[in-house]
Here is the input.
Amino acid sequence: MKIALIAMSGLRAADPVLTGFGLSLPGATGRIKAIESLPSLALLTLAALTPERHQVTYHEVRDINRLEDLPECDLAAISTYTAQAKDAYALAGRYRRTGTKTVIGGLHATVLPAEALQHFDAVVVGEGEPCWPVVVRDAEMGTLQQIYRATEEFSLSDAPVPRFDLLQPDRYDRLTVQTQRGCPWRCDFCAASILLTPRYKLKPVERVAAEIRAIRQIWPDCFIEFADDNTFVNKRHAKKLMRAVADEGIEWFTETDISVVDDPELLAMMRTAGCREILIGFESPRSAGLKGVELRKDWKWRRTSDYGTAIEQIQSHGVAVNVCFVLGLDGDGPEVFEAVADFVERHLPFDVQITVMTAFPGTPLYGRLRDEGRLIEDGAWEKCTLFDVNIDPKHMSAEALRAGLINLAVKLYSHEATQRRHDAFRQQIAS
Here is the structure.
């Protein structure tokens, strides 16, 4: 059987002004290009779980309107984010008209399986690894079911090395490796892997090292991104990971929270282990904006006063900080735009990322705003881009949020502002 693994890829905004302007500013393009260049780790992992008797190919679709020839296959397995869901549905429709069976998995399909079933022959709900061998077997036998759910939780101790060999080497210079799945925090707006897995879990560092070695056999100088929601939240595992990764001679990027500064030993290990930059979700520089964002312990709100010193401490260890702000939080009004600009100018993180509060299906935020009648266009998945406004903010108009995003982007992502932050970091590590 021929199986085509197809990733809907690329970043875009539904708003053409944002696509043509806001996403192309000098200080923003680097991270955007990096994200767009990453292949689907989930699909490469499924490829590794596919019996060898089947022929597996990997493909990426950026613009379905420019896709003339469909990858030939007997089973098309498609993975997508919410923003590209409708494109995935259209692609599945083209396959089904030829008689080819289709299956979808991932976050969007997990939270909206009934919707996905209107367009696909089968839907995988939750983690894909336990279900995939059964999906392949059923497709081969002509008995494909509509819904597949894992009957037992998948252990990352059983995770195979993804099929990196399916990728074209000259197309990639950075790849992803997952060291854990889930997150112990529960943020109102978060649509990360906590929607796929019932609990936070860790991958043995020996498995992580094996994946890194597999990548380096093909790309000796490849830059690595850890595909984690919060790499350093478990300090004991993080230190084991640092020791293992230090032996692999790689440079890498990941996401975490500011609790990394609570452990001086860990912080001192990161640069030596190859960590070059970490992204931290600050969300807002204002304590009022953070109140209630983290639903279990209001953890982010309690750490607001540590934000500035955290940047200084981390960057003094030679690790660049990319701070992420979410504009339009319920505790913030129009004053947040100037507050973000002031914070960035004062503390000079190496990079900064700004997005707007986005209601992704399946999140606590989505359910709350739907009940409050604050979703501008329910079901407009193409606006779930983190840049398009798909909600009515609590303390400003939707248009004010859009305009504030654009104006703030001009300030933060100009060549001069970006260079000032980068120069400050280089001076700090040189001193």
